[in-house]
Write a sequence for this structure.
């Protein structure tokens, strides 16, 4: 088969050997251009045969670059902080609760919100692939998809948190949720003290992407300006 | 399959490298094309989510570990498109179609409505029977080693845990890949004590849960 499973540009020795047969400038750009060529070939053939529409692909890329992101999750968390009734609904059925917020697109099924408390800290991982709550947080950061995060989080979460400069009290319980099915998880971080009279818009500024995965805490009031 | 993708609990992968909160999702333009192509192929009915995941798991281990996320997605797309006869190797080498298209069961995503590509599919189904377990039940994750696709990670196999939530009845990934059948099964959140998984020297404050389909579990 002409196209076997060889990731040109993956950084392996094979990829370098391959490229030594070509005239190029020996940087990684040449490897990426090989990926670009293969991606373009597949997209073109699939499009010419009518399986996909390249103009639709343009729009899908644009949507993931500009419309979907952690600002959606931050809005949900801020509402949960500000409204105890909403928080109860969110923890009971997150997909349903989030749809009442007027998010500008449909939120998928099986979303589960888990709340941090003074006793328990929650962390989300996917050990088998990279399942992530795209609906609320957009596409995952590279670290979430990394072998280091996927291997270590279920075994030594405090060491993983240390990589994020997060230290929890020694007696705090840690709950790791491995996303092994189509359920998707989001963490509701603890609300920082000193924010009692803040608006939801202000509160949302404190909610980071990492705090909704559990590798971070919400920002403190002094950290936003 | 007992593949290299099943990473939970392995050592040696080094530190996790945090990234800025605000970041472009794609480092290179081709990554966006791969993501969008994957979404569009899913909606076209080229393959389902489970077959797609298994396609990545079937990459050779050295490729799996060396490739980036979107490289893996691309290699999966290319491999499955070839295996399913959507494209030929000659067409990919030429960069143009030269054989007739196959008919697919789904629909082509068009520029006037991409909403389907931005929404997760639904996987809950009518149950085939009553749930076997209830919240609070003690269960053991079976010591099984399916050679095809499974979502039971190795690190819990043989260990006892507790049913914490019942998540409804969902498409069963093992059957979706091995049999081409949705075969809906009850799905549970099963929580394990960290020291049961990792031994007496491990973090005493840790609990780990997985989302487990009923066939993965047996009563204690």
């Amino acid at each position: 088969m002409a196209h076997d499973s060889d990731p040109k540009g993956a950084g392996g020795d094979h990829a370098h050997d391959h490229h030594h047969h070509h005239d190029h400038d020996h940087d990684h750009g040449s490897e990426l251009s090989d990926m670009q060529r293969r991606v373009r070939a597949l997209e073109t053939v699939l499009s010419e045969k009518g399986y996909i529409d390249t103009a639709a692909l343009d729009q899908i890329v644009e949507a993931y670059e500009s419309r979907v992101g952690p600002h959606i999750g931050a809005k949900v968390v801020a509402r949960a902080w500000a409204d105890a009734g909403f928080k109860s609904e969110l923890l009971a059925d997150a997909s349903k609760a989030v749809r009442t917020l007027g998010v500008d697109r449909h939120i998928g099924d099986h979303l589960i919100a888990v709340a941090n408390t003074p006793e328990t800290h929650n962390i989300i991982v996917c050990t088998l692939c990279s399942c992530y709550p795209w609906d609320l947080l957009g596409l995952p950061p590279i670290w979430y998809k990394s072998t280091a995060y996927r291997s270590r989080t279920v075994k030594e979460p405090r060491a993983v948190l240390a990589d994020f400069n997060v230290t929890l009290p020694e007696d705090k319980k840690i709950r790791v949720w491995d996303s092994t099915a189509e359920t998707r998880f989001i963490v509701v971080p603890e609300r920082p003290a000193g924010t009692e009279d803040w608006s939801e818009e202000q509160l949302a500024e404190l909610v980071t992407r990492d705090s909704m995965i559990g590798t971070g805490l919400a920002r403190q009031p002094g950290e936003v300006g | 399959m007992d593949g290299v993708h099943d990473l939970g609990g392995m050592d040696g992968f080094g530190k996790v490298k945090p990234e800025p909160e605000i970041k472009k999702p794609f480092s290179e333009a081709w990554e966006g094309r791969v993501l969008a192509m994957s979404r569009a192929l899913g909606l076209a009915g080229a393959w389902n989510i489970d077959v797609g995941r298994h396609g990545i798991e079937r990459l050779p281990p050295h490729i799996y570990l060396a490739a980036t996320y979107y490289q893996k997605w691309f290699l999966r797309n290319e491999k499955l498109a070839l295996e399913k006869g959507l494209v030929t190797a000659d067409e990919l080498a030429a960069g143009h179609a030269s054989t007739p298209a196959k008919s697919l069961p789904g629909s082509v995503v068009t520029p006037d409505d991409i909403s389907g590509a931005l929404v997760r599919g639904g996987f809950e189904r009518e149950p085939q029977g009553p749930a076997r377990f209830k919240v609070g039940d003690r269960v053991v994750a079976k010591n099984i080693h399916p050679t095809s696709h499974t979502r039971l990670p190795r690190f819990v196999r043989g260990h006892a845990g507790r049913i914490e939530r019942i998540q409804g009845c969902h498409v069963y990934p093992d059957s979706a890949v091995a049999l081409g059948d949705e075969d809906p099964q009850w799905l549970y959140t099963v929580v394990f004590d960290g020291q049961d998984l990792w031994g007496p020297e491990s973090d005493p404050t840790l609990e780990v849960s997985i989302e487990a389909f009923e066939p993965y579990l047996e009563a204690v």
